[in-house]
Amino acid sequence: MRKAILRISLLLGMMYTITACAELQAILKHVEDSGGVEVKDVLSDDEIIRGLKDALVHGADSAVARLSLKDGFYGDAALKILLPKEAKPIYDRLEKVPIIDGLISDAVLSINRAAEDAATEAKPIFLNAIKGMTIQEGMSILRGVDTAATHYLRQKTYQQLYNAFKPKIQQSLEKKYVGNLSAEGSYKKVIDTYNTASVNGMLWDKIKNNSLAEHTTKKALNGLFIKVAKEEKMIRENPIHRVTDILKRVFGYVFEN
User: Fold this and answer.
1) 3-state secondary structure 117-156
2) Among residues 170, 154, 149, 159, which one has the least CA distance to residue 223?
3) pLDDT reported for residue 243
4) 220/169 Cα distance (integer angstroms)
5) What is the three-class DSSP state of 220?
6) Among residues 21, 48, 61, 67, which one has the least CA distance to residue 224?
7) Is 76 inside a domain boundary?
8) Taking the chain, what is the end-to-end CA distance rounded to the nearest angstrom?
9) C or N: which end of the chain has fewer Cβ atoms within 10 Å?
10) Structural domain boundaries, residue 121
11) Could you give the CA distance from residue 141 to residue 143 in angstroms, rounded to a whole number?
C-alpha cells in the first residue's frame, strides 16, 4: 500500500512541479507524514493527463501570443533575428561603408516582422500534437526535465511547423514593412550597396544575394521553442501561471494537503 501511495504521489508531484529533486522529496514526505492519503481517491488518471495537457496548451498558447505581437521577436534580445552568416563580412566592414548601418537596421527589423507575422501558424499545430498525446507520452514528460514538454512538442511538430512557417515567412518577407521596402528588398539593398562599395569586387569579395526564407524560418522556429520552454518552466515552478481550474485543483491538492 505504501509503495502505491508513494508512486502516485510522485506522478502528481512531477506533473505539476517537476522542479528540483529536493521539492519532489518534500512532497513525498508530506504525503507520508499526513498519514498516507491516497491521491487516487481525489484525482483520476484522466484528470492528471488533462491537467498536463492543459498546462501544455496554455504554455504554447502564451508563447505564440507573445511572439506574434509587434516586437515579439524584434524586441527580445534573446530571440531577435539578425542577418544570415553570409552577411558577416558586411558587419565587419561597417566603418568602411557607414551608409549600410541604417540599411542593416531596416533589413533586420523587416526580417523580425516576418517572423512575428508567421508565429500564429504554430498554434493549431501545437494543439493537434497536445491533443494526440498518449498517457505513456504524458508520463514520460512527467519524469523528464523541466523542459520535457517542449522537447516533446519539438519532436512532434518541428517538420510541420517548418512546412507551415516557410511559405508564410516567404510571403511576409515580400511585404513592405520599412521604408516602402520588403525584408527581401531591404536585404538586397544592403548587399547591393556593399558590393558597389567594393568597387565591383576589387576591394573585397562581393556577396551573392541569397534568399532569407530558409534563414528566417529556422531562426523563428528556434525562437519559438525557446519561448515555449520558458513558459513551461514558469507553469511548473510558479503558482501564478496555473490559470485553469484543473491546474489549481491539482496544484492546490499537492501543496495544501
Assistant:
1) HHHHHHHHHHHHHHHCCCHHHHHHHHCCCCCHHHHHHHHH
2) 154
3) 63
4) 9
5) helix
6) 67
7) yes
8) 19
9) N
10) 57-246
11) 5
What averages of pLDDT result for each successive group of 10 residues across the chain (257 residues)? Answer: 39 39 39 44 68 81 93 95 88 77 85 91 91 80 79 92 92 79 82 85 81 89 93 74 65 48
User: Three-class SS of residue 178?
Assistant: strand
Is there a domain that residue 43 lies in?
no
The answer to whether the beta carbons of residues 76 and 178 sit under 8 Å apart is no
Residue 238 belongs to some domain of the structure: yes
Residue 193 lies in a domain: yes
CA nearest neighbour of 52 among 131, 124, 111: 131
Round to whole Å and give the CA distance between 242 and 56. Answer: 11
Q: Residues, the chain, total? A: 257
Helix 148-173 to helix 122-131 angle, to the nearest 10 degrees?
Answer: 150
Contacts of 191 (CB under 8 A, 6+ apart): 87, 90, 207, 208, 209
Taking the C-alpha atoms of residue 149 and residue 137, their distance in angstroms, rounded to an integer, is 10
Cell numbers standing for residue 243: 490559470
**All three cell numbers of 127:** 494543439
User: Domain total for the chain?
Assistant: 1
Cell 520535457 sits on residue: 148
